[in-house]
Amino acid sequence: MEKRIKNSEKHPEAWAFYIAQARNIVDEPTLNKFGKYRIPEPNRSGSFIYADKVEELWSRFIEAWYTEDINSESVYGKIQYIVNHF
To answer: Residue 58: its pLDDT value, please?
Structure first.
């Protein structure tokens, strides 16, 4: 039987950001119309990723984490931006 790799092992930098920044906003009526959970976009744009399920939030977040962007918290995102634009 193959050992399942945890998200914290597979994506340690992303996981640390996710744990530190993800929030349950169920009790915040002005925000929860977008979803039950939110996390800041990793590109520091000031916008948020919203979802109704934790798994969905992680999926959307990890996709954004690996998107190329010079302002990203993700080293991978910064490197990909530099490689593709310079």
So the answer is: 96
